[in-house]
């Protein structure tokens, strides 16, 4: 009964905290609310017209929604790069940032599920994915495994930080015996969610662009580069506009993680390019379409030739110790690396897998305004959720939110 009273008090205090703030904070929340409303309007049009309102066709059946889903799974998995050193290796330098990283993972997973719902056409078909009711096809379907690992990882990333913050809200220390087993499990689960997503593509023999043994490891490398890069940018904003101070040492350690992951990701990219273009076969046509165009079709060339130079530039800047320790250079490098991997792992991965089709026909894909509106709305929803979680967590960690007995 007492815990319910504490929980009720936490909810009331949290609502009070997130409805108060500076003028910039209210402008930010108003902007996100506007973007979410715009996304809901676009989604209502999609519900009315069906997926014909999007740029997807029977030739290219995965587009902007699944591109963002694939990328955000990696952002969510990247929280493990803070969880493992903090909870398992007891590195105190990561302790300040771990709750922020887990909040980012929760927001990313919510966006992942929202993009899946948008891609399915509407929420009315979600019953197909409920075990025991829908056509779950377990354990043969990789989609089933993806549903399980995503929801399981979301549960872990909600419960572990909630327990820690709930204890801190009461002025008590959290018990390691309670949260450490879950933290250790989340380390393996984070790897699992991204490998399972990679296996979704890798197991499609009819799509040679995805049927690549290097796809799973490259998914992890790109995730551990883009995710921590975003965490660094978020930490920079938090320590600028709030009283929650993040040490330089913490950001520099996360930057080292980003650097190593970016280098590995670039090496794997070079390996894939060598495989596709040194001794090309008819299975290399998707890669040719992506990088050079095919039969006069060049829709993706501006995207991929923006992503590759940004990727290389960011990795080079991060590799040099002196440049990486300059925070202006670091933040710039993290931003362009995040954008580069979003392009490369989004459009650069999903769309070319469908081109050319099984009979050699090329049907290019261009997202419609409806798709873009829904996508921006979902990203705004993720930012809104993260802002609420971060503001509550920071208030508790700073001691501003405390249970009044």
Polypeptide structure, described:
Belongs to the NrfD family. The chain crosses the membrane at residues 27-46, 66-85, 97-118, 147-166, 178-201, 221-242, 254-274, 300-320, 327-343, 376-396. By secondary structure, this protein is an all-alpha fold. It has one domain (2-397): Formate dehydrogenase/DMSO reductase fold (Up-down Bundle). 71% of the residues lie in helices and 0% in strands. The chain has 15 helices and no strands. It has helices at residues 2-18, 23-49, 64-77, 80-88, 95-119, 142-169, 176-202, 215-241, 248-277, 285-291, 301-319, 321-324, 327-345, 347-350, 369-397. Helix 2 (23-49) runs antiparallel to helix 15 (369-397). The longest helix is centred in the middle third of the chain and has 30 residues, at 248-277. The radius of gyration is 22 Å and the shape is globular.
Question: What does this entry show, briefly?
Answer:
This protein is mostly helical and 405 residues long. The protein contains 15 helices and no strands. The mean pLDDT is 86.
CATH second-level architecture: Up-down Bundle
Name the structural class. mainly alpha
Named CATH topology = Formate dehydrogenase/DMSO reductase fold
Query: Which segments are poorly predicted (pLDDT under 50) over 5 or more consecutive residues?
Result: none
Overall 3D form: globular
What is the helical fraction, as a range of percent? over 70%
Biggest sheet: strands, sense, closure?
Answer: none
Query: Going by CATH, what is the homologous superfamily?
Result: Formate dehydrogenase/DMSO reductase domain
**How many separate helices?**
15
CATH level 1 name: Mainly Alpha
How far apart are the first and last residues' alpha carbons, in Å?
14 Å
H/E series: HHHHHHHHHHHHHHH
State the total count of DSSP E strands: 0
How would you state the average pLDDT, rounded? 86
